[in-house]
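Hello forum,

I keep getting stuck at the same step: I have a sequence, I want structure tokens, and every attempt I make locally crashes halfway through. Rather than fight my setup again tonight, could one of you with a working pipeline run this one for me? It's a single chain of 484 residues.
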Amino acid sequence: MERKSLYKHKTQTVEEKRNQRRQEEIDQRKARREKCVSDKRFRHSVSEDTDAQGDEISEQEVIDATNVLLNKEPEKLEALQTLRRAFAQGTTYIDTFFGQENALTCLVGILTGNDTDLQLEAAWCVTNIAAGTDDQALAVVKAAAPYLITYLSSSSLDLKDQCAWAIGNLAGDSSECRKLLSSQGCVTPLVKLLETDTPNVVQSAAFALSNLARECNDIASEIVNAGVIPHLVSRLQDPGVSPKLLSEIAWVLTYLTSSGEFTNKLVSNGVLKHMVKILVEQADQQDVDVLTPVLRCLGNICSGPDEYSIQAFENTKLIPALVTCLNSEHHHIPKETLWVLSNMTGENTVCEKVTNGPLLEPILAKLKAAYDIKIEALYLLCNLGCHGEEACSVLISKGVVETVAAMLKTHDVELLHLVLSFIEMMLRLTDEGKALFEGSEGVARLEGLEYHTDEVTRKQANELLETYFYIDNNEEGAEDENME
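Reply #2:
Ran it on my machine without issues. Output:
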């Protein structure tokens, strides 16, 4: 075993691997959510949702409706309803509207008028325009955002709800829009809306706050300083909270925990405990809209100090819930769960619970899953193996070396790097790893990588061969020469 200590490119420590993994996740997730949750959302009426968004509207109808507004004709309400339905059917109709001179200015004028019915329809139009392209959203921010923010304090709950939704769409567009909204003072009134008793209003406010906090730590800090945490925790404690509202709150918490700056404060206010409880309660329901942000929030929190992972596992129902998530039929739920476990298993006692408990079998099953899930499973196994010989021996007893050795045939470079790192760890930390690897045609596959086009892969393969397989031959040759 002593010769193995001479191998210079040892597997990273748990802490190094955790930091690398965290940065990789930040890069990968920086500008996206899963398809089940959209950064911007068109708003349809209940009847339109029921009837597949209502009847298709033509571009000529958009032009006619716009002219009604521009010419101050009396049928404004009907025209606005036509426009907001059209805008929800695609950005082409928004372009048509923008093609009419002073159309947006006219719409904002109606928004700021005295007729509450027209104001609400105008705000709805603005909401759907804000769900369009970057240029369309930026135009709305500059023309209408100050009024939308003002109406967050309106006496009309419907107008508050609509304006919060519009701000959420604008915030979901770009960092430029988020900064403009923040500079115009949207954060405090949005946080204030979380106090209302109307779930729709709270849901729209949370949607806006989550998009504002995304990718912008300064705005996230502003949201925290505005007192958002007690409001969010209060909603999490409500046994009657709807899944839709729960999802929006979890997204806010996901983005507030992404940088790690506010995690201590969030955990001290009970967020970790509540996220674990929600995961336990929702795992069997398989509501992806809830599970996705809850898993991401947990993963963010547990990428911090080890004590957070220990606290999470104090809930004895967490392991069965994670097993359920790993076995989910929704593709990205097992993927997210593997990522959460990768962050949790930096801690020794958690690693032991995963390695020696019911979680290991469904984890190993993911080695034969689709590529992106397989990658997550390998990262997790590397994290487990980092804890030493005992964890590696358990993995070897489960046939992992043979399974992973077969992956050396892949053409994907990232997967190859992970496989080679895992194999190195098994060879270095266990006595039986070498024989199992050789028996799985591992050496021949390594030799096939000696001329790989990727330099890192070539180097990894060559060093494994030289360190663990060719060295004995070299030593025998040297002994023969000495005998002669």
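DSSP finds 31 helices and no strands in the chain. If your local run keeps crashing, start a new thread with the error log.
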